[in-house]
Amino acid sequence: MVIGGPTGSGETTISEILIKKYPLFKKLVTATSRSIRSGEQEGINYYFFSKEQFKKEIAKDNILEHTHIKSRDVYYGCYRPDLETKISQDYNIIVNTDIIGVNFYKKNFNATSIFLMPDSLSSLRGRIRNRNPEIADEELEKRMGDARNEVEKEKPDYDYTVINADGKMEKAIEEIISILKKEGYNLN
Known about the structure:
Layout: E1 2-4, H1 11-21, E2 25-27, E3 31-32, E4 47-48, H2 51-59, E5 63-69, E6 74-79, H3 80-88, E7 92-94, H4 99-109, E8 113-117, H5 121-131, H6 137-154, E9 160-163, H7 169-182
Parallel strand pairs: 1-8, 2-7, 3-4, 8-9
Antiparallel strand pairs: 3-6, 5-6
């Protein structure tokens, strides 16, 4: 299952809640070429590689799909060893990814995809600002532009859209659980 959406839409938080609620769900730990941040752990948050190592992993077919964020010169991608381990253990896998990943998982793994979004873009602006009060106005506007683009151009590629309105996350989670049941996911 893929849960995606603009930054600040709640995809990471909701994924973590589903994983705690349903032990058969595990989050796919993806690979990245960005530096490890304070509090992050190798193999828990990401698999961390240098850019050179990341490219070698692609060549070895250990990165099944990837995205390069040009503005930050950082790669993110599906790390095959993590995916194959979780599949072999019969877990339902939750992936938080961009539209390239959404299309990859839908095509190759018949994944159900859910686009999570706030009830309004102004609500999203507030979430981003609250999460990072020091964010520069220029960076905030860039993220808002990215969010508008995702809603307009990427949302149609998802199977479902769920609104995660401020203060109503439980309602969004209930809707996602209904979707999972409808799609035949084992929740026990």
